[in-house]
Amino acid sequence: MTPMQHADTPWRVLVVDDEPDLVEVLCGALRYEGWQARGVTGGLDAVAAADWQPHAVVLDVMLPDFDGLEVLRRIHTTAPEVRVLFLTARDAVEDRIAGISAGGDDYVTKPFSLEEVVVRLRSLLRRTAPPGPTAPGTLAVGDLRLDPATREASRGDDPVDLSPTEYALLRYLMEHPRQVLSKAQILDAVWSYDFGGQAHVVELYISYLRRKIDAGRSPMIHTVRGAGYVLRAAAG
Q1: Is residue 236 part of a domain?
Q2: Containing domain of residue 152, as a range?
Q3: 112-135: per-residue pLDDT in tens?
Q4: Residues in Cβ contact with 67 at an 8 Å cutoff, skipping those fewer than 6 apart
Q5: Which CATH number fits the domain that encloses residue 201?
Q6: End of a domain among 57, 92, 126?
Q7: Is the Cβ–Cβ distance between 30 and 121 less than 8 Å?
């Protein structure tokens, strides 16, 4: 079933690439899925098109005016909840991680299949849907709290500001306290597809959570060598 924000409101996806033919093909594929799609070929146009309030952006890293990382920063200034799927011709892991570190949610490397883009976008958009009225109550592990209804987190008296992907990861960990979760399990639950074995993305987001949750405190997120990660209440 094609994901929808509401029963009669399709997802809006902005496509940004300096190749007009690719923009047209991608927009056509997304519209075929039943989504709304708009395409632009430059960074300035992309920032201006953010007024359309897209739920997700398919964003080329290399653009003629300024790069996709700058586009992401400008869009997230006013709309931090927008999902971003990077398109890149670069093969270096460092370049891919740069987009994720800047706030992107995922990436595909050119050349890619249209099916791959659609699958990855669908995974991102599933995590964008707001919790319904039957959302569970506040999750608690030790002094760590997470409210799925508001997506607000705190440790002790201190609020914890989370990106959408950090929220999804923390929620999964808190729904399975004291359980050792493998990278494969985390990828399947949080990213909802096989990430091609690139488990460094899990490591990256675990490190983000540790900085926000464990910094200056007794640690709650632990690495179990060769097995995965476990969240448990801090030792008293």
Answers
A1: no
A2: 139-231
A3: 889 889 988 988 887 665 434 434
A4: 43, 61
A5: 1.10.10.10
A6: 126
A7: yes
